[in-house]
Design a protein that fits this description.
Layout lengths: L7 E5 L4 E2 L4 E2 L1 H13 L4 E4 L11 H14 L4 E4 L5 H15 L3 E7 L5 H15 L3 E5 L1 H4 L5 H10 L3 E6 L4 H11 L3 E4 L6 H6 L4 E4 L4 H14 L1 H8 L3 H7 L5 H11 L20 H17 L14 H8 L4
Helix pairs in contact: 1-2, 1-14, 2-3, 3-4, 4-6, 6-7, 9-10
Length: about 325
């Protein structure tokens, strides 16, 4: 069997901004990353679509990655924004210069409906950089629709691919077909909206963001230990908030405002073409967040996988939740 990315929850890290100029907020980023490690994430996905990587300059992308590398020892998957091979190679080399051996893989989007084109793209990337690849099928972001059968043929033709992130609905159907045909990990995304059905279809876990990532981690762990009913019970209280966060065209500002409300980032600003949080939704958001907080408080107390530094944002938040 070929190498495969570790199962579990790979948190997709938002990029916090601050002030009217929307500069990268390195303090909030450091706290958010530390928090993911403290609650037991398998790894982190940095500079993905929800990290607003396409709105960052090359220098800012390096800065974000530097902060993440410094603040956590979790393995990293780094997103690649370009669909063009040459530009993708440059992005990956820049990431390798910062992350070095911490880079478990790069996440590359399918750049064509033609599997031969995608396979050539991925093989050229691997030959130029040596990087392992997570193949992402996310047509909403890439504008490319590719069949599941074509994805399978791409992975079979590219030994550098160690995981697939399936985000083309219906994800449960695609994941069932992918896991039946491939020997690499397949992850769901989309904020965990289809996580239970994706696990039933053979998913290795989730590679996504959510303002209560504890819920995704608890769900996947429960699935691994005790199966569907335990996973369902772990996730059920959070499903209204998951659904709220995944509203079309406003998912990013909604999630960032939820993270701000939790105290995990200081500012919810998003860069263009993102829109600001719709204030008309604030009462609903606060209702869902209160329900999620109550569900988290009701869980049996458990010590984080690794304790954050005393006085850090992660330590303060975990202490407030009674988990340190």
């Amino acid at each position: 069997m070929r190498e495969s990315l570790a199962p579990g929850v790979w948190g997709v890290v938002a990029t916090p901004f601050q002030g009217s100029t929307l500069d990268v907020d390195t303090d909030s980023l450091a706290g958010l990353v530390e928090y993911y490690q403290a609650i037991g994430a398998t790894g982190l996905t940095v500079l993905g679509v929800f990290g607003e990587a396409a709105a960052l300059t090359p220098a800012e992308r390096s800065l974000v990655l530097e902060v993440v590398v410094e603040e956590t020892d979790l393995p990293l998957v780094v997103g690649v924004t370009s669909l063009y091979t040459g530009a993708a190679v440059e992005e990956i080399r820049a990431a390798q210069a910062v992350a070095g051996g911490r880079l478990a893989a790069v996440m590359v989007q399918a750049n064509s409906a033609n599997p031969a084109v995608v396979a050539a793209h991925l093989n050229a990337i691997h030959q130029a950089t040596g990087a392992k690849v997570v193949l992402q099928d996310y047509p909403l972001a890439s504008g490319v629709s590719i069949s599941t059968a074509s994805l399978i043929s791409v992975v079979q033709a590219c030994t550098a691919v160690i995981a697939v992130k399936a985000e083309a609905p219906p994800t449960s159907v695609a994941i069932a077909e992918l896991t039946a045909a491939l020997d690499v990990s397949v992850f769901g995304g989309l904020g965990g909206q289809g996580l239970l059905d994706e696990l039933l279809s053979g998913a290795a876990g989730a590679m996504t963001g959510f303002s209560y990532p504890e819920a995704l981690i608890a769900c996947v762990r429960a699935w691994q230990a005790d199966g569907y009913e335990a996973a369902r019970d772990a996730l059920l209280p959070y499903l209204p908030l998951i659904n709220f966060e995944q509203q079309a065209r406003i998912a990013l500002p909604v999630r960032k405002e939820c993270l701000r409300q939790r105290g995990l980032i200081a500012d919810a600003g998003v860069r263009a073409p993102g829109a600001p949080f719709p204030e008309v939704l604030r009462p609903g958001m606060l209702t869902h967040l209160a329900e999620a907080a109550a569900a988290l408080d009701a869980r049996p107390s458990e010590r984080p996988a690794s304790a954050p530094a005393a006085g850090s944002p992660a330590a303060q938040h975990l202490a407030a939740a009674g988990r340190l």
